[in-house]
Amino acid sequence: MKLLADENMPFVQELFGDWAEIVTCPGREISPEQLRDVDVLLVRSITRVDETLLAEAERLSFVGTATIGCDHIDTELLARRGIVFASAPGCNKVAVGDYVLAALLRVAAHKGWSLKDKTLGVVGVGNTGAEVAERARALGMTVLLCDPPRALTDTTEFVDFEQALSADIVSFHVPLIRGGEHPTWHLLDQAAIAGLNTEQVLINACRGDVWDNQALLARQQGASPLTLVMDVWEHEPEVLAPLVPHALLATPHIAGYSLEGKARGTFALYRALCEQRQVSIHLTPEQLLPPSPIGAVHLKEAPDQALVARLVRLVYDIEQDDAAFRLALGQPGFFDHLRKQYPQRRELGSVQLSGMTGSGEALGFKV
Ligand SMILES: NC(=O)c1ccc[n+]([C@@H]2O[C@H](COP(=O)([O-])OP(=O)(O)OC[C@H]3O[C@@H](n4cnc5c(N)ncnc54)[C@H](O)[C@@H]3O)[C@@H](O)[C@H]2O)c1
Ligand SMILES: O=C(O)[C@H](O)[C@H](O)COP(=O)(O)O
């Protein structure tokens, strides 16, 4: 069996090495010719799997993406051609929760805000949105949930998009959907942007195309700019460079880039392929991970916002990611390079808190 994987997918050798000939390649360079004799294709979000890519892939029987988002995959084509497809729902939701928590704390420090007096609108309340909502509640924030598709069948209390946009901070966690009843392409469009007041904060850790970046730039260049946290950008790996100085935090699509999240992503594909090939599973995602570099922290007092900020920074310093982004901006290929060279990042849950732990568990720590 020949397996072709994106070179940025960790643990491929450990999980598939025993039963496949493995070839790796940069995700943006996978070509139709390369797929001629490939049985299994494992990609990340940067490889568009479509008619053109699969034109010569006559042996292909399995495609997996080690990501939550699937907007780069023509799933109808795969179904039509009888190719088994697997993705990794939820794999990096905890990492996105860590990222947004770190962002909220940075925003609060910047604005001198006590987060327990603030509201957070969560747009898209699936795996990542729910994770973010839980962290925000643990900080004492009032959380408004907005998820029109879920609201159709779910009894949870939801608000509409307009109400979500009235929150002090609005965090977006929707899949990129271009048509249908609930499209998300440019969900934050010029009209929505115009309705916001200058005190408000927007966070995008889902897909760049969900925000109209040009309209946002126009707003930021005017008299009443917003506070922005941007992990994702329209037209990645290109970035609308003039927008970057207008963002409080700017990062290269790494919200989900914890080591645990990546391990769970590759493992989800391993599990799916084991099922397809009727091979038994002989590992767990945890077995792939090295020990946590921090281990344990004992608290002498229940953590308030300032202590939570220090604890989070100990494990994940979002400002380092932001600084690296600004330093590299404009260099050829900087976006992909930062992602490829991304330092090993562990989740808050890799740290065991003891003592006066307060809401430590809901914030993502192990208690
Ligand atoms: N930046 C990153 O590193 C990163 C990491 C993980 C996921 N993502 C992106 O975030 C997206 C969401 O991830 P998830 O795990 O929460 O997905 P999910 O499928 O679990 O949840 C998405 C939720 O969005 C809702 N939704 C759909 N259309 C909507 C609309 N128009 N308005 C409001 N809500 C709507 C759905 O009903 C669903 O509940 C992924 O599709 C992916 O594109 C980015
Ligand atoms: O959809 C996802 O899971 C994330 O956006 C994922 O972290 C993207 O990372 P990539 O596949 O681009 O390396």
From TrEMBL:
Indicate the principal place this protein occupies in or around the cell: cytoplasm
Q: Return the SUPFAM superfamilies for the record.
A: Formate/glycerate dehydrogenase catalytic domain-like (SSF52283), NAD(P)-binding Rossmann-fold domains (SSF51735)
* Enzyme active site: R207, E236, H253 (proton donor)
Q: Does the keyword tRNA-binding apply?
A: no
Annotated residues that bind NAD(+) are located at: D147, D231, G256
Q: GO CC annotations?
A: cytosol
Any Pfam family: 2-Hacid_dh_C
Ranges of residues in domain D-isomer specific 2-hydroxyacid dehydrogenase NAD-binding: 109-255
Gene3D superfamilies (alphabetical): 3.30.1370.170, NAD(P)-binding Rossmann-like Domain (3.40.50.720)
Hey, which family's this protein in? Belongs to the D-isomer specific 2-hydroxyacid dehydrogenase family. PdxB subfamily.
Functional note: Catalyzes the oxidation of erythronate-4-phosphate to 3-hydroxy-2-oxo-4-phosphonooxybutanoate.
Entries under HAMAP family matching the protein: PdxB
Q: How does it assemble?
A: Homodimer.
Q: What is this protein called?
A: Erythronate-4-phosphate dehydrogenase
Identify the gene encoding this protein: pdxB
